[in-house]
Amino acid sequence: MGGHKAGDVASEMAVLQIGNYWKETSFLNVHEASEWLDEHINIENRRIYRVANNYKDLDGMGTTIVTAAFIKDEIVIGNVGDSRAYFLDEKGLNLVTVDHTFANELRINGEITEEEAKNHHQRHTLTRSLGVFNKLTVDFFFLKQTDDFLVMLCSDGLTNGVRYPFIEEVLKSRDDLKSKADTLTQAALNNGSTDNITLCLIEKTKMSALNQKKGG
């Protein structure tokens, strides 16, 4: 987590451990996948929590996480913290996840406006993250796959540096995925983002689906 000790250690622990176990899985539906993700994100949360408490130089470390699983014609998104998932289809770009920050919770509760939340002094203060508490609640969101869609998973290092309309414009462009990722990353850096920037783009098109069917 930005501003916290050993956030890079915590994020690497979570990604490598969960990623390695994920390779051995096979699910019939997104609900099975969400149960597995919930269990293993919580296992990793407790592991990071124990390590942080046992080593003084790692005390206070933590990480956010956002995941996406694509099974048959559905998608399940999971998140903890302020790393985000966006979903783009013919209807436009939508933010799927909800930021677990103090300012956003004030907004949800109607105590401040959306505009006030954007500039609130605690807009980056996390209310939920891996490694901080022994128990953790993971939010899950279920989506239907369309013929053409794009999913973007990203850290707040990106969204702190670029605004929603620009993200939508870039993701809707005809550029390939790498070019889109490079454009967004460079724009965030140019706009002064100082946090780590991580993003992942996953795309499905009618053409790719047709080729998949032809290939068996």
From TrEMBL:
<dbReference type="InterPro" id="IPR036457">
    <property type="entry name" value="PPM-type-like_dom_sf"/>
</dbReference>
<protein>
    <submittedName>
        <fullName>Serine/threonine phosphatase stp</fullName>
    </submittedName>
</protein>
<feature type="domain" description="PPM-type phosphatase">
    <location>
        <begin position="1"/>
        <end position="204"/>
    </location>
</feature>
<dbReference type="InterPro" id="IPR015655">
    <property type="entry name" value="PP2C"/>
</dbReference>
<dbReference type="InterPro" id="IPR001932">
    <property type="entry name" value="PPM-type_phosphatase-like_dom"/>
</dbReference>
<dbReference type="Pfam" id="PF13672">
    <property type="entry name" value="PP2C_2"/>
</dbReference>
<dbReference type="GO" id="GO:0004722">
    <property type="term" value="F:protein serine/threonine phosphatase activity"/>
</dbReference>
